[in-house]
Specification:
Length: 409
């Protein structure tokens, strides 16, 4: 068995390249089902967010394929043209990456906790499609556990920030008048709601677009107004700031649409979506200032942040070690099962004459023998796994080999 992954993220690829390899839930499911049918691939998971796309797989040790080629087949692109944007990791390097990623230590905004939900949702999607296996199940669950422990026990000064929060900080440095600003957020999904909430905290007047306008059906962040999505172009000229954060495969705003409006003042456009919600040409229009999610990156960590990262590292390493206890021990389970069966058989042979002398009916003797088998099996299993939990891995393997030799013919 082998664990491997390939990934593309904001460090190596801009928003447009990332968009080429992004997945919706629907096409991620289709892609994983296709990958699972490839001989040698035991399980797979696709993690696709605004900042990254990662393809994970557990494969047979002798699988000679490459995840990059399989991914590019799905996306119908030439792997030689896009290989430079991907990072490939295997075994320990891959495991280490996932735990640090899920704990927020590899995010554009350090320690943001959306990634925990995103990793968990990626596993759930793979599980629902029946394309994961026990190795990826345990790996991803352990990584989520590590992320939750870091979130609970380590304080980062900029934890829980979003890209919108970073944008707000940038605009505050430019003395953007949030208290008097009229803002529109296009999109009322998870990203849109977070953006709207961040803007409301500044005191801005925030309006959110919704696809359906039915009271009691569509909810928007508290303190925000709402309009139909189709009214966005009529509403836009009166705005100071326009944010788009949808999962739509099509642009919510185009250059042609904005050029057709009468912009009487400077408007800031912020596109938080991958693929883009706003056409790049909007930034060329007089009176329009366009930013994408890639424009909001943190500078180097402070001394306090470095200390927090050390605390997080200790938690992560403990969870990684726990994963390897399971990962390295799973191959021994069939051997432990054989040792248990041999030990139970040995005990039965030693008790056979004694049981035969007891004044029991045939059924009572069978019931007693079954109870002894169950009890003996539990005792042997407890002893062996007790050794596993207290000994170093190499020492435990030596113990298993020694017990196997006891019953060798």
């Amino acid at each position: 068995m082998s664990i491997s992954m390939i990934g593309i993220d904001y460090n190596k690829a801009n928003v447009d390249i990332r968009a080429m390899f992004s997945f919706t839930k629907k096409n991620a499911t289709a892609a994983m089902e296709r990958l699972k049918k490839i001989p040698g691939i035991q399980g797979c998971v696709i993690l696709s967010t605004c900042n990254r796309m990662e393809l994970w797989a557990s494969t047979k040790a002798d699988w000679d394929g490459t995840l990059l080629e399989e991914l590019c087949k799905i996306k119908e692109v030439d792997p030689t043209q896009y290989g430079e944007y991907f990072v490939e990791r295997k075994e320990e390097e891959a495991v280490d990456h996932l735990f640090h990623l899920t704990s927020g230590l590899k995010s554009m905004i350090l320690a943001e906790d959306q990634i925990i939900t995103q990793v968990k949702d990626a596993l759930t999607l793979a599980r629902d499609a029946f394309v994961t296996d026990n190795v990826l199940e345990v790996l991803f669950r352990k990584a989520v556990t590590a992320g939750k422990k870091v979130k609970t026990n380590v304080i980062f000064s900029r934890a829980n920030q979003t890209a919108m929060d970073q944008a707000i900080e940038m605009l505050k440095e430019r003395n953007f008048p949030f208290a008097e600003a009229r803002c529109m957020v296009i999109g009322n999904g998870e990203m849109g709601k977070l953006a709207a909430q961040s803007l409301r905290r500044t005191g801005a007047d925030v309006t959110v677009t919704v696809r359906q306008y039915r009271s009691g059906v569509v909810t928007i962040p508290m303190g925000c107004s709402r309009i139909n999505y189709g009214e966005r172009l009529d509403f836009l000229p009166g705005c100071d700031l326009v944010v788009s954060a949808t999962a739509s495969p099509n642009c919510t705003l185009t250059k042609e649409q904005i050029e057709g409006l009468d912009l009487k003042k400077q408007i800031i456009f912020i596109d938080l979506a991958v693929p883009r919600d706003m056409e790049p040409g909007i930034g060329e229009i007089e009176g329009a200032e366009l930013y994408t999610i890639d424009d909001f990156k943190l500078s180097g960590p402070s001394a306090a942040t470095l200390q927090s990262m050390e605390q997080a590292e200790a938690i992560i390493q403990e969870e990684i070690d726990d994963f390897y206890v399971w990962y390295q021990g799973r191959a021994l389970i069939p051997r432990i099962q054989e040792i248990k069966e041999d030990a139970v058989t040995d005990l039965n042979l030693r008790l056979h004459k004694i049981l035969g002398k007891l004044p029991l009916s045939e059924q009572e003797r069978k019931d007693l023998e079954a109870s002894i088998d169950t009890a003996a099996g539990k005792v042997v299993t407890k002893m062996i796994f007790g050794l596993r939990d207290t000994l170093e891995t190499d020492a435990f393997i030596d113990c298993v080999e020694g017990l196997e030799k006891v019953y060798e013919e």
